[in-house]
Amino acid sequence: MANRLYNKQISPKGYKRGGGVTGKTTTTKTTTTTKSEKKPGIIRRTIGKIRKKVIPTFDEQFAKARKNKQKTFTSTRDDKKKGKLEYSTKTAAEVKAAKKRMSDRERARVGDTSKQLSEKGAAFKLARRMGKKEFTHKGKKYTTLLAL
Question: Where are the alpha helices (DSSP H) in 1-148?
Answer without folding.
Answer: 2-8, 42-54, 58-67, 79-82, 92-101, 104-110, 119-130
